[in-house]
Amino acid sequence: MKYISTRGQAPVLSFEDAILAGLATDGGLYVPETLPQFSQEEIASWAGLSYQELAFKVMAPFVDGEIPDDDLRELIANTYSTFRHDAIAPLVQTAHNEFILELFQGPTLAFKDFALQFLGNLLDYVLKKRDQRVVIMGATSGDTGSAAIEGCRHSDNVDIFILHPHNRVSEVQRRQMTTVLENNVFNIALKGNFDDCQNMVKASFGDQSFLPEGRQLVAVNSINWARIMAQIVYYFYAGLALGAPHRPVAFSVPTGNFGDIFAGYLASRMGLPVDQLVIGTNANDILHRCISANDHSLHQLVHSLSPSMDIMVSSNFERMLFDLYDRDGAAINKLMTDFKATGNLKLSDSALTKARELFTSYRLDDDEMVRVIADVWEHTEYLLDPHTAIGVEAARKTRRRQDIPMVCLATAHPAKFPEAVRKAGYPQDPPLPHHMADLFEREERYAVQDNELSAVQQFMKDNIRQ
Ligand SMILES: Cc1ncc(COP(=O)(O)O)c(C=O)c1O
Ligand SMILES: N[C@@H](CCOP(=O)(O)O)C(=O)O
């Protein structure tokens, strides 16, 4: 399997090289040259597989033998052994044909664990094999950071630097990152927003000359192909549990950087019968405006009660555009260059038509989201986190068919977001799981930095281990 850039001008890479490259040298994102295709018979034969067995079936064609099968199986087994539920991604029914896919049973309580615990193990494996040391640089609006740190904290070959927007993540999210005191882990609280963090990461990938000789940057954000690949698995898992491929399923996904829903789109391209993909956004609604009104223009980023989705520039939308524009790298290069210059992007008529066939979208402000948490609690005693609530309501508002099961992705545990949950009338802070019960007593360490690329890079230079 070869990996190509969405902008068509970077070298074509193997799986391992694409994973280590992060952003392509032309500024694009790596995608597989062709997608594996699974027949309906093959998918049907996977009914009843464990999550780990299914993960191997879905991911092996992307790895394409670069990692021996037994080693890949072991990486998968180690990854999901740290999850708190045997089913790994349990399904809970909340209404007729409405299901919640709990993706928060991993060590850091968000869906990011599915891919980032795997990526941590994968990087450790590849770097040991190559006897190579790297520097990880990542941006987080709250969840990627702790999952990436958890995945890499024990890796000797990695120094990890995570930028989060200062005072813009929940206290639980911040502490999950800043209480990890291993000497290869560095948290930077940037005086800016998530887009500033993400821009710094992308700029640093573009010019890595600030790094010590012999080191390279590796990405843990969903610009890294391994993130998307590992997330495709749970779409198949949920689909199979609900009768696919004999019956179609629909998915609703609270969306920010477009990695999660893009994985759902790929699952459908690979053979899973998906009837509908619903994009739910908070007030940072660029994706909803794009689908509903062909308005993909930058607005001021606002601080919401679903802070992990306080994102304006969605990295993975570029991967989607690549497909919507028939994989024309030159066209994507122009679109993205113009978007950077003008802050505006209009889809062509044919791209918009295709996008609307694939996706519906809905936007919720904080008040509406809080009402959804309260309503679902009242009717089912199921406590949603604010991001999941956005997906649930987006599904209810834009659902095309009631007879098809709608799977709403529960992307985080409500204990991460006590402020939103309390606003919904829940009488207490939802308890943290046992392994995090003492989170508020643990010592924290992080550096507050001005929103200046050179200052951040200097901090990194000063702290990368020899
Ligand atoms: C809890 C939660 N829900 C939803 C999202 C959106 O996912 P994506 O960025 O893959 O669209 C994120 C982060 O991005 C998140 O942390
Ligand atoms: N919501 C994310 C933002 C980063 O997205 P990623 O999926 O590209 O890593 C977070 O919690 O950090």
UniProtKB/TrEMBL annotation:
The keyword Amino-acid biosynthesis applies. Pathway: Amino-acid biosynthesis; L-threonine biosynthesis; L-threonine from L-aspartate: step 5/5. Residues 101-330 form the Tryptophan synthase beta chain-like PALP domain. InterPro entries: Ser/Thr_deHydtase_PyrdxlP-BS, Thr_synth_N, Thr_synth_N_sf, Thr_synthase-like, Threonine_Synthase, TrpB-like_PALP, TrpB-like_PALP_sf. Residues 2-80 form the Threonine synthase N-terminal domain. Its cofactor is pyridoxal 5'-phosphate. Its EC number is 4.2.3.1. It holds the Pfam family Thr_synth_N. GO terms for biological process: threonine biosynthetic process. It is an enzyme of class 4 (lyase). GO terms for molecular function: pyridoxal phosphate binding; threonine synthase activity. It catalyses: O-phospho-L-homoserine + H2O = L-threonine + phosphate. The modification N6-(pyridoxal phosphate)lysine is found at residue 112. Keywords: Amino-acid biosynthesis, Lyase, Pyridoxal phosphate, Threonine biosynthesis. It comes from the Bacteria. NCBIfam families: thrC. Belongs to the threonine synthase family. This is Threonine synthase. It comes from Porticoccus litoralis.
